[in-house]
Amino acid sequence: MSAMHPLRDRRPQTFQELKQFIAEGRIFLPHQVEQVARRMLEQPDMIAFESAAAVAKNCGVSQTTVMRLSSLLGLESYRGLKKLCASYVRERSKGISHPH
């Protein structure tokens, strides 16, 4: 099995699962793709609400590199990655307590 084998057999279903997959080293990410993954973990809202081109510019990589992250994580497209991140951002915002 190649070190860059995508996770098609076990795709992450949630952002938390995605974080776990990366933290546990279940997949090898080339340096520039890892750069995007780190930013995604720090700022999931960036992926959730920005285009692949905007994310690429923010991370200093090509748009292809951003798309490659989705593929290496076993997702069908960047849209799938956006959905995972957007779902997490929505859930996280529900958990924010508001002042009385």
TrEMBL record:
HTH rpiR-type domain mapped to chain residues: 16-92
Top-rank taxon: Bacteria
Q: Which Pfam families match?
A: HTH_6
Write down what this protein is called: HTH rpiR-type domain-containing protein
- Name the lineage: Bacteria, Pseudomonadati, Pseudomonadota, Alphaproteobacteria, Hyphomicrobiales
One molecular function GO term is: DNA-binding transcription factor activity
